[in-house]
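Reagents: none. Just compute today. Retrovirus-related Pol polyprotein from transposon TNT 1-94.
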Amino acid sequence: MAKSIRIVLAIAAWYDYEIWQMDVKMAFLNGFVEEEIFMDQPEGFTTVGEEQKVCRLQRSIYGLKQASQSWNTRFYEVIQDYDFIKNDYDPCVYKKISGSSVAYLVLYVDDILLIGNDVKILGNFKAWLFTKFSMKDMGEISYIIGIKIYRDRSKRMLGLTQSSYIEKVLKRFRMEHSKRRILPMRHGIKLSKKQSPKTDEELKRMSDIPYASAVGSIQYVVQCTRADVAYALSVTSRY
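Predicted 3D structure written out:
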């Protein structure tokens, strides 16, 4: 998904398209369920005299395994009425072309990016979409999937940064005061299995270090914005 978002944002930056963002409130409650699903009456909503009865779901709710799929299916059914076509590579990316007007739509859970070159068409579609779902208008894009977006339209430049996420990771592993380096991995470093802990004391010390968790936290940054750290991540992931 991060790759698709980067590609669409790159297109928007190159052609100077509008990039608008919206948030769907309680998105998963919009999906319909095809299966027959029953649940206990929620606490505080029990019908007097019918306490032993259960509820049959008419719509999806949070916690269902199929909640995400149900919401995605419902959303696509709705925007098909506006002639949006699903991308073959990523089913969460949609496109509409009408004459010289181009519009892209990206759906990530409950976040929507609306991108295009015709402000009037985008505005009409956004107003129409608000009649279908309860949403919040976020205006111009500024933050998506943990990535901060900054833009200079006069130079057709768009940048992505995860500095806030990285700072949180450093604090989590008590490394916020560590020195910054130009390179992600010092030249000449060689890691091997021989360096793994062997004695009981070494094993005990390493068991208190969340090594796998730290490496995994970096993986998300590599996928989104820091491909330059990929080699260092690959090497450290082996051990």
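The CA atoms of residues 52 and 198 lie 59 Å apart.
Action item: order primers for follow-up constructs.
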